[in-house]
Amino acid sequence: MIKYFANNQSIILVLIPVFVLLHMLMDFYFPEFNMLAVGQENLWNLDFKQINPFLSKSLAFVFICVNAILLNFVFNTLEFYDRFVYLPSIMYVLMVFLFPISLRFGEDLIAHFFFILSFYQLLSIRQNDDARNNTFLSGLFLGAAATFLPIYVTFILLIWLGIFIMRPFVFREYLLPLVALAFPFLWVFLVDQEFYYHFFLFDSTLNFSRFGGLFIVIPHIVIIILALLANKKILERRLKSSIRYKRIISVTLFALVFSASLSILILIFTKSYFYFTIGAAILPFILPYAYLNVKHKWLPYSLFYALILLNIVKFFY
């Protein structure tokens, strides 16, 4: 299966909604996995749990598919690889399936959508072009993401670092994303004048205790090994790639390290695995390299099917 996603065959994208639908059908018969997440952090005072269950699953289905295809569009448009591939889509789906956000509609999926748009605008910055439009839109989309999942407000540091790597210093290009980031919060203020408290609460929880080590240790080991394999390939590719590619991949790697560090820190202080979901929108830019033009395929292929198996076993555990 993986070889089809690694080739330039756009028809393979029809499998994305099929996989998402099958995953939701599994939840229909074995719904325990959907009950692990508690808490809502959006600043709009929206209660996603009050949405009709069928509508909630339908919206989750749409957003997962849209996010997966959007990630693929960004990966191919910005030429992360020298030919079109569709691995980012399937990687995103498998990452999201590890969390209950794949089974209900909530702020997480909306935040992923806006973050991907923000990241696209950031990586679209070119050294010799006016970057005001890109920096403003990147900040605006990031602000929209933060109104649904406040942890994303910290990614303004990623935007600033990205500008620093991509462009010569222009002060207004550092100021514009900050102004744009603040703009969505002007509307949030009309809903909740004390919304800023949510930036420090981190009260969403995700409890995998009944799975023991199966759903905590094993997925992390699989993803870490895949990330290491991908990084090895990235380092090889950097040696013979353009300056622009080196800058794009540097920003992407920093985004991954930054999100992982945030998630670990929050885990240490709050004991919640919930915030590892932010990495699900970044890993699909990195993990595909574990499968592209590799000599020894048995290890990454085995890990790919291990992720699929984990996402099935969780319903019966």
Quick structural summary:
The chain has 317 residues and is mainly alpha-helical. It is built from twelve helices and two strands, in the order ααβααααααβαααα.
Write the layout of secondary structure elements.
Layout (H helix, E strand, L loop, with lengths): L1 H4 L9 H15 L7 E2 L14 H25 L9 H11 L9 H17 L8 H17 L7 H11 L4 H21 L13 E2 L10 H22 L4 H28 L12 H4 L11 H16 L4
Antiparallel strand pairs: 1-2
Helix pairs in contact: 2-3, 2-4, 3-4, 3-5, 5-6, 6-8, 7-8, 7-10, 9-12
Strand content: under 5%
Mean pLDDT metric: 89
Please give the largest β-sheet: 2 strands, antiparallel
What structural class do you assign from the helix and strand content?
A: mainly alpha
Summarize the amount of helix as a percent range: 55-70%
Radius of gyration: 19 Å
Count of discrete alpha- or pi-helical segments spanning 4 or more residues: 12
Instruction: State the strand order across the main sheet.
Output: 1-2
Enumerate the spans where pLDDT stays under 50 for 5 or more consecutive residues. Answer: none
Descriptive notes:
With 317 residues, this protein is an all-alpha fold. The protein is 60% helix and 1% strand. The chain contains 12 helices and 2 strands, in the order ααβααααααβαααα. Strands 1-2 form a two-stranded antiparallel sheet. The protein is globular and about 55 Å long.
Essential attributes:
317 residues; mainly alpha; two-stranded antiparallel sheet; 60% helix
